[in-house]
Amino acid sequence: MHKVRVGVIGCGSIAQKRHLPEYRENVHTEIAGVVDLVQSRADDMASLYQTKSYTDYKELLLDEEVDAISVCLPNYLHASVTIDALNAGKHVLCEKPMATSREEAEAMILTAADNNKTLMIAHNQRFVSSHQKAKKILDSGELGKVYSFKTTFGHSGPENWSIDGRDSWFFNKQEAFIGALGDLGVHKSDLIRYLLGEVDQVGAFIDTSAKTDTKVDDNAICMLKMKSGVIGSLAASWSYTGGSDNSTIIYAENGVLLIENDPEYPLIVNYSNGETVKYQLKKIQSNEAGGQSTTHVIDHFIESLVLNKEPLINGGEGMKSLQVILGALESNEKGAFITL
């Protein structure tokens, strides 16, 4: 089989730190082209990865030798560009959050089905070693009934890692649609669904308290009730100025799971009988030094294409994780709990 020829649309930080280097490392992949509205940025990446550069993504989509596309664009463009790529006969890996509305997400899923193409959403938390191990422990039933949880993703904000800094689209309400909740919170809604099943109800307080001159949220606290009846909290923030937090704690009958909560051990289980088990696992990926080197998202996407199998996070999964966030926005607006 020939190598999967991939085009990357958008050459910002996520493409430069994740998609492009991880495609280059994948033996089944060839980078067939890069697109960015900023010509010099596209040219720089094309030169670095020895490929073609474009400023108009539609030109790249005309290339019949391109098999798949990574959509690494501001949130408001995810749906339209993904749909164009699928209609051009390309498989698509789209960055999260997959869309800015349920309608957009449904249109993306429908277009993928109509064209018989793969649509995957780039949620990486399911591939983290500690999260996979935690799921095995939970699924085994050894911890008994799950009582509650808290899951958090916070750092000091995208101005510190986005290619355009404080001028980034992340702070532009029209382009971003949502702030910390869409950037970080949707990772955690995907993770908690992976670990504990579907979310039934959501209530939220969402605020802009840390960043000035922007209308996007930078702090969100959500209360979730799972279909199983388990209740817990989800926090997303761009105001953690003294470092980042990417932890999840699950409280159960026979013990407590501490996930990504300790600098040395990615997973610790404190059993109610007094026993403690500490797992030495691969570190979670982060944009800071010493983080995990790969997200596994690219490898999983390519593997699903090579083996012609459905990816773990398809459009339907991406939409369910998005709906938790959309529900949180609605809850904050109405001052009421929202049933999903």
Automatic annotation (TrEMBL):
Protein's organism: Jeotgalibacillus terrae
Record's protein name: Gfo/Idh/MocA family protein
Leader sequence residues: none
SUPFAM superfamilies per UniProt: Glyceraldehyde-3-phosphate dehydrogenase-like, C-terminal domain (SSF55347), NAD(P)-binding Rossmann-fold domains (SSF51735)
Gfo/Idh/MocA-like oxidoreductase N-terminal domain sequence ranges: 4-123
Ranges where the GFO/IDH/MocA-like oxidoreductase domain occurs: 131-257
